[in-house]
Amino acid sequence: MSLDKEDVEKIAHLARLAINEDDIPEYSRELSKILDLVAQMNAVDTSNIEPMAHPQENSQRLREDKITELNQRDAIQANAPQVERGLYLVPKVIE
Amino acid sequence: MHNKTIAELSTGLKDKQFSSEELTRHFLDRVKRLDHKLNCFITLTEDVALEQAKRSDKILQNGDAHPLTGIPVAQKDIFCTKNIKTSCGSKMLDNFYSPYDATVIEKMSDAGAVLLGKTNMDEFAMGSSNETSFYGPVKNPWDLHTVPGGSSGGSAAAVAARIAPAATGTDTGGSIRQPAALCGVTGLKPTYGRVSRYGMIAFASSLDQAGPLTQSAEDAAIILSAMAGFDTRDSTSTDIAVPDYTSTLANNISGLKIGIPKEYFSNALESGVQSAVQDALKEYEKLGAKLIDIELPNSGLSVPTYYVVAPAECSSNLSRFDGVRYGYRCDNPANLEDLYKRSRGEGFGQEVKRRIMIGTYALSAGYYDAYYLKAQRLRRLISNDFSAAFKKVDVIMGPTTPTTAFKIGEKTNDPITMYLSDVYTIAVNLAGLPGISIPAGFSDNKPVGLQLIGNYFEEAKILNAAHQYQLVTNWHRQIPDAFS
Predict the structure, then answer these.
(1) Which site among B51, B174, B264, B382 is 20 to 30 Å from B206 CA-CA?
(2) pLDDT the model gives residue A68
(3) Where are the alpha helices (DSSP H) in B287-335?
(4) Is A27 on the interface with B (CB under 8 A)?
């Protein structure tokens, strides 16, 4: 399996990662090598095997519909790069 | 004081040979004097430590102390600590001060443990050498030119150098056991679901599990008894009572059936590691255990399977780092997409970006079945191998790693070779089983680890077997000369 420049750019876009143009050949080489490693999976026929998502296949627990968390907006927003009046600020989205 | 285990320090505290404050100052002083050689700590929490030590001294005076009361413990910087920097080894979280404590932190603090500091680690726990940390590599105290292993490298090296009596780690593919092996300490990965993941920064949620790195199996039992337990805040936490793991350590292991998987003794295994492991197995025979050959036929597929499952879950988990709510934000974003892309591109290191991209690819439209679903089917086969083996044996033993500690820089340009250093540990995470690595001698003056794998929720059994070995050997008592 080999990923070319275009593949790497597409994946980086899907992952919302800015990568340097100069690093693309290295990414394409390394990601291709990892996919070659991963391709060893194809050696085994798994058509009748049930996928295992999780070590303990319990169903998701439900909790009571009750408020358990206190409002800690200020404490939580203390970590934000930019806030104003309790709102997170980002560059303008709607023209 | 630093060459004593938690069990011994706890006795010293109760007998008033020294106070927790004295003990804590002793370790703070050791970190300050010695850690510049190792780089184990990202944050030393001196003020918190001394405050907790004084609190512990009062509890000790009243006489109702837990075995951990007053003992300084280093916490991996993946556990959220309230109002203390929690970086996860990343530039992305270099400015992150958690608003809450992880359950592990809370439980250990409730037991009276003293928070010594936050330890260095591979960025977001992605690495096997501690070289992907934003804060620089950690050195192995046995040979400063070699890696301590990873991702819990700072924790393992800190315990090995006795600049912390014990530490915590997390293990997604071997990140507790592999550094424990390379640094000559004891490292336990509990059953998936045994220890709460709440407040533990997520890497691959179906594999991640926290556990202790200690000088002995007895200490691991003490810490696990405090760390483990059901937690409603972790949706995959298991509601099974936590035994006192120290109460079964003394059990006789005569008649214990030990499975030896032939796949773990292939050509990839370094001869020095092989002979140390064989010697350890002979010790077990002397203790009355029986060695039984077993097969784990699909174990060869665990590395490829892992490198789909873990990156896929990581790409999903790490999508939360968006430069908006917390963490690193790039300068002067032109628009929202530029903000996302550059904050993530600049905030994450190379290995993390590599894994996010592999995971994104494996989960992208048209590839999901071929990669993620295929990997989940193989995961079932790998897990079934263990279930079949545990019908015949009580525990499984083999090497923790194929080699001893490798040179810093030796594998950084070759991710695949790096990934293979976890070849014996990864399958255990895929199956969700408990595993422990204990010191089992040296090869070329570097520590070798013996791995014990148990059935689900049978931590007590592997701790018992590990402790019995440590009663008749002293590998776990060795300290590197420069730190003795």
Answers:
(1) B264
(2) 87
(3) 302-317
(4) yes
